[in-house]
Design brief:
Blueprint: E1 2-8, H1 11-22, E2 27-33, E3 39-45, E4 51-53, H2 59-64, H3 68-76, H4 81-98, H5 103-114, E5 127-132, H6 138-151, E6 156-160, H7 168-178, E7 182-185, H8 189-198, E8 204-208, H9 217-230, E9 233-239, H10 244-257, E10 261-265, H11 274-283, E11 286-287, E12 289-291, E13 300-302, H12 305-313
Parallel strand pairs: 1-4, 5-8, 5-9, 6-7, 6-8, 9-10, 10-11
Antiparallel strand pairs: 1-3, 2-3, 12-13
Length: 314
């Protein structure tokens, strides 16, 4: 096998060089972009011996590494096609860079590069706004967060900005009482801004918003106004069983409104999590927690790059 690294400013010209120098049988091993903005490509062609050109020694590991297992698991989980291609390329790059052949460690390293972490209980950034589609488990995730904070001795203020769902305020108020948390209601952005500003210092401020259809302009505008009024981090709750195509499109729209953290819900009820993976990548979200049980007291679990890798390869 002959392996060669190509660098050029133009990807079309780069592909032409691969064909000219290695022939039509050449396969692309990995692609990346250098710090100066140029495209880098590692290609290989079958020969009797392993041969390196242009100092592309790291690719020896890519030649020895088979991504068959990860490819099969991504297919099983029904991840978006573009996401599958990107992850496989990154896994090959990781194998090439470090000489690693273990799929779990490779995928974990890739996810650690892709996804930053968030902390739901971080009081340095105390305002957490929960947003999501109707039925995504948004309010339940908020209450589970409050219960987790309560167990750790962190006081909370729960704010309902859901003026759409019947009984939403009464439901959250009763749950706040059980958790010994403060409760406030705010229908309009101005009221929400005042409620957040008036929350007692040192408390975790958890804000519930109406279920939002991100494909409707009017609902996106309503949520955008609430998010701007509240400030803080926006946690997107996403049903883990949501299909990858719709999940990716919805995630990108929520991200455009300011959502920066992903909290998958109902993870215990599905076997394929391609929607979660696609949403996480399309939205560029941070990872931190997932809902893995209907239990309000113990329903949240840590959810990061390593746990996502284990789920995909299980």
């Amino acid at each position: 096998m002959r392996i060669k690294k190509f660098v050029d400013e133009d990807m079309i010209r780069l592909m032409r060089r691969v064909k000219e120098e290695l022939g039509p049988e050449a396969v692309i091993v990995s692609t990346s972009q250098s710090e100066d903005g140029r495209s880098e490509l590692v290609a290989a062609v079958e020969t009797d011996e392993i041969e390196f050109a242009d100092g592309a020694e790291p690719a020896v590991y890519a030649a020895a590494y088979s991504d068959n297992l990860i490819r099969e698991r991504l297919d099983y989980h029904e991840a978006d096609a573009a996401v599958r291609a990107r992850l496989l390329a990154l896994c090959r790059e990781e194998a090439a860079a470090g000489g690693e052949k273990d799929d779990v460690r490779i995928l974990t390293a890739v996810f650690n590069r892709l996804f930053a972490a968030y902390d739901l209980l971080d009081r340095k950034n105390p305002v957490k706004v929960f947003a999501g589609l109707q039925g995504s488990g948004k309010t339940a995730a908020l209450v589970k967060t409050a219960a987790l904070a309560c167990r750790k001795g962190i006081a909370c203020t729960l704010i309902s900005a859901d003026g759409v769902r019947a009984g939403a305020n009464a439901q959250l108020k009763s749950l706040a009482a059980v958790l010994s948390a403060d409760f406030l209601a705010a229908r309009e952005p101005e009221q929400l801004s005042a409620a957040v500003a008036g929350a007692e210092k040192g408390r975790l401020v958890l804000v519930d918003t109406p279920g939002t259809n991100p494909f409707l302009d009017s609902e996106r505008e309503r949520l955008s106004a609430l998010l701007k009024a509240a400030g803080g981090e926006t946690v997107l709750t996403l049903d883990a069983g949501y299909n990858a195509c719709d999940a990716g499109e919805a995630a990108a729209l929520f991200a455009s409104l300011g959502a920066d953290c992903l909290l998958p819900t109902k993870l215990d009820l599905c076997r394929r999590i391609g929607g979660v993976l696609t949403a996480a990548l399309k939205g560029g979200f941070k990872l931190g927690r997932a809902s893995v049980s209907a239990s309000m007291a113990n329903g949240l679990s840590e959810f990061d790059g390593p746990s996502l890798a284990r789920l995909l390869l299980a």
